């Protein structure tokens, strides 16, 4: 008899259950991986609420996955049972112009493992071996679970160009905003201001090294930020991506400065002050996910101790309590919520 495994099934935020299904079998060039830790992402709760433009319900989540190789399929023998790994969930075609230029994070046929395919919030899962990275020695599974969430900020920060000595504003102190803060600091930013509506999140940003944390709803936000940074910001990272935040970004950024849109925008049209964008030569650039290079940077950042894991990982739940993990993840006082898997 084939082994039965547990796998999380999300129909809505209120309907998150565990399904029992036969264990998947690795095909050629695939690995069968036993999950140890898997993160709940903002995109997961967004999808469960029915708001994610690219994730259809029901779905089987889990793209921030850490595990141990159980079986290496034919052609995947570079890995061996027992290897500790993290997955890089972007599944790309390898043929389109974007893939051929190395920008496979924006592949024309991009699918995300655990978003458009069954994910790793399960006892076992299969994935192509080329979508897997070995975990460096000395890195814990909990730390490894932060590599994927950190890789997006690392990619976003790289898009902003050389940050050495520059001034930065990060709009939004959720998990992505806090990790943008850490990545920007590591990239040499001189002064960083973080904004958020919630005092608890502003305090956390300060503990994680922000020079200033400002209330996002302050009517004189630009004045406060200018005072803290000594002038308009060289770079603004918009981790909120709503009408108000992009308006703040165009207000806060210096002439010739850069706005990086990191948050997932609402579907449809978001107004932007095009007159200011043109007149001030403001560059607005989007950023999506990451590539392997960003993973390697994120791993070395974590290995170097630059990320205070205890400030980022605020709750963990066993697999059978996945519904509770999702509910906790919606709480704005939480940062990163993890699900741990110990086998059936
Ligand atoms: Zn994620
Ligand atoms: Zn492609």
Characterization of this structure:
By secondary structure, the chain is of the alpha/beta class. The protein has two domains: 4-146 and 307-340, Alpha-Beta Complex (Quinone Oxidoreductase, Chain A, domain 1), CATH 3.90.180; 154-286, NAD(P)-binding Rossmann-like Domain (Rossmann fold). Helices cover 29% and strands 28% of the residues. The protein contains twelve helices and 17 strands. The protein has helices at 42-48, 97-100, 141-144, 147-159, 175-186, 199-207, 221-229, 243-252, 274-279, 292-303, 309-312, 322-330; strands at 4-12, 15-22, 30-40, 64-72, 84-87, 90-91, 111-112, 124-128, 132-134, 167-171, 191-196, 212-215, 233-238, 253-261, 283-286, 313-318, 336-340. The strands form four sheets. Strands 3, 4, 5, 8, 9, 16 and 17 form a seven-stranded mixed beta sheet that branches. Strands 12-11-10-13-14-15 form a six-stranded parallel beta sheet, sandwiched between helices. Strands 1-2 form a two-stranded antiparallel ribbon. Helix 12 links the parallel strand 16 and strand 17 (336-340). Helix 4 (147-159) packs across helix 5 (175-186) and helix 4 packs across helix 10 (292-303). The longest helix has 13 residues, at 147-159. It starts with a strand and ends with a strand. The mean pLDDT is 96. The structure holds zinc ion (2 copies). One zinc ion binds next to helix 2.
Which characteristics define this entry?
17 strands, Rossmann fold, 6-stranded parallel β-sheet, 29% helix, 28% strand, 344 residues, binds zinc ion, alpha/beta, Quinone Oxidoreductase, Chain A, domain 1, 12 helices, globular, 7-stranded mixed β-sheet
């Amino acid at each position: 008899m084939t082994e039965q495994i547990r796998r999380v099934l999300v129909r809505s935020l209120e309907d998150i259950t565990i399904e029992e299904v036969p264990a998947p079998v690795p095909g050629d060039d695939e690995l069968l991986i036993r999950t140890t830790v898997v993160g709940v992402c903002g995109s997961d709760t967004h999808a469960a609420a029915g708001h994610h433009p690219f994730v259809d319900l029901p779905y089987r989540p889990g793209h921030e996955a850490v595990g141990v190789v159980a079986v290496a399929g034919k052609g995947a023998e570079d890995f061996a049972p027992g290897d500790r790994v993290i997955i890089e969930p972007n599944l790309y075609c390898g043929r389109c112009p974007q893939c051929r230029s190395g920008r496979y994070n924006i592949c024309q046929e991009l699918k995300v493992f655990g978003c458009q395919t069954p994910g790793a919030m399960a006892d076992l899962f299969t994935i192509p071996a080329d979508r897997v990275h070995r975990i460096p020695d000395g890195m814990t599974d909990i730390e490894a679970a932060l590599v994927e969430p950190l890789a997006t900020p690392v990619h976003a920060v790289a898009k902003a160009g050389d940050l050495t000595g520059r001034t930065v504003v990060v709009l939004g102190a959720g998990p992505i905003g806090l990790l943008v803060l850490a990545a920007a600091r590591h990239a040499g930013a001189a002064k960083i201001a973080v904004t958020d509506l919630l005092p608890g999140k502003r305090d956390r940003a300060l503990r994680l090294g922000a020079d200033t944390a400002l209330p996002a709803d302050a009517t004189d936000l630009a004045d406060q930020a200018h005072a803290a940074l000594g002038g308009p910001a060289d770079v603004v990272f918009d981790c909120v991506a709503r009408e108000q935040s992009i308006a703040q970004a165009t207000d806060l950024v210096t002439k010739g400065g850069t706005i990086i849109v990191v948050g997932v925008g609402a579907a449809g049209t978001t107004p932007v002050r095009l007159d200011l964008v043109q007149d001030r030569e403001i560059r607005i650039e989007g950023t999506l996910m990451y590539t392997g290079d960003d993973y390697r940077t994120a791993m070395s950042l974590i290995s170097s101790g630059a990320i205070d894991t205890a400030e980022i990982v605020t709750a963990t739940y066993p697999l059978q309590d996945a519904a509770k993990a999702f509910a906790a993840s919606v709480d704005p006082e939480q940062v990163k919520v993890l699900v741990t898997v110990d086998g059936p």
